[in-house]
Amino acid sequence: MKGTKVSVIGLGAMGSALAKAFISKGAHVTVWNRNTEKVQAMVAKGATAAASAEDAIAASSLTVICVSDYKTADKILKNKAVENTLSGRTLVQLSTGTPKESREAAAWAQQHGAVLLNGDILAWPRQVGTDAATITFSGNEKAYNTHATTLKLLGSTSFLGEEPGQSSVLFAAVLAYLAGSWIGFVHGALIAENEGFPPEKFGELIHSVSPMLAEESKHMGRVIDQNKFSDPESTVDTTGHDLHLLVQHSREAGISSELPEFAASLFQRAIDAGYGKEEHAAIIKVLRKVS
């Protein structure tokens, strides 16, 4: 992509990966970061250093922002020097934020004559620039289409819709799934380790059954979307019973029972609410009832 100009603000692990991906694909990349050592590291790879955030934005029609979160981004962007530079430019916000923050950021950009696309990276830094990286975007479709070729240098991209918060909604949903799977995996590794079974072997087992787990995710999404839980292969009753046994096992083994206690409690609430004969995804019915 020789001749393509793009600026990157934020050079942490992910921001640096973004800048490197653009550079490796031949783009002219301008970078800014509060830590000048990180800037110089990118300059050594072929980037151009900007003296300030506003200078980085002025250097390109497209600026990608990737810092820890929207609050940090606001400290960098919400000042007169930057706001006076925004007119006619497109910002791509790849920092982590909530859907509400995404909508507010899009409105702020519009007030200053700019367009802001909200995006989320579903990948590790080492995967950026390859098809293994999935990046979602939402916001102004015309702006996305204008810059789609440049953004695709970062990985496999998809546009979710013009509602600015949609990408953040999906990222929050994915993060909830990941948090549960990470905690569940660690508890499983704890069980294995406590009994002298190598956690690495446990990891290999999970890897081998991952196609089945992926299919289960599709199934659960479908039945929740349709709100139909009456044709179970595994019921809330069955899973609830198994989770109570997991609590028992944890106590007998002298290991943490925090996770199984939480899970067993949640399934018990669903059983008590009369959902015991439905499939386990029906626990969403009790989660929907916020007290």
UniProtKB/TrEMBL annotation:
<keyword id="KW-0732">Signal</keyword>
<dbReference type="InterPro" id="IPR036291">
    <property type="entry name" value="NAD(P)-bd_dom_sf"/>
</dbReference>
<dbReference type="InterPro" id="IPR013328">
    <property type="entry name" value="6PGD_dom2"/>
</dbReference>
<dbReference type="GO" id="GO:0050661">
    <property type="term" value="F:NADP binding"/>
</dbReference>
<dbReference type="InterPro" id="IPR048666">
    <property type="entry name" value="RedAm-like_C"/>
</dbReference>
<dbReference type="InterPro" id="IPR006115">
    <property type="entry name" value="6PGDH_NADP-bd"/>
</dbReference>
<feature type="domain" description="NADPH-dependent reductive aminase-like C-terminal">
    <location>
        <begin position="164"/>
        <end position="289"/>
    </location>
</feature>
<dbReference type="Pfam" id="PF21761">
    <property type="entry name" value="RedAm-like_C"/>
</dbReference>
<dbReference type="InterPro" id="IPR015815">
    <property type="entry name" value="HIBADH-related"/>
</dbReference>
<dbReference type="GO" id="GO:0016491">
    <property type="term" value="F:oxidoreductase activity"/>
</dbReference>
<dbReference type="Pfam" id="PF03446">
    <property type="entry name" value="NAD_binding_2"/>
</dbReference>
<feature type="domain" description="6-phosphogluconate dehydrogenase NADP-binding">
    <location>
        <begin position="5"/>
        <end position="158"/>
    </location>
</feature>
<protein>
    <submittedName>
        <fullName>3-hydroxyisobutyrate dehydrogenase</fullName>
    </submittedName>
</protein>
<feature type="signal peptide">
    <location>
        <begin position="1"/>
        <end position="21"/>
    </location>
</feature>
<keyword id="KW-0560">Oxidoreductase</keyword>
<dbReference type="InterPro" id="IPR051265">
    <property type="entry name" value="HIBADH-related_NP60_sf"/>
</dbReference>
<dbReference type="InterPro" id="IPR008927">
    <property type="entry name" value="6-PGluconate_DH-like_C_sf"/>
</dbReference>
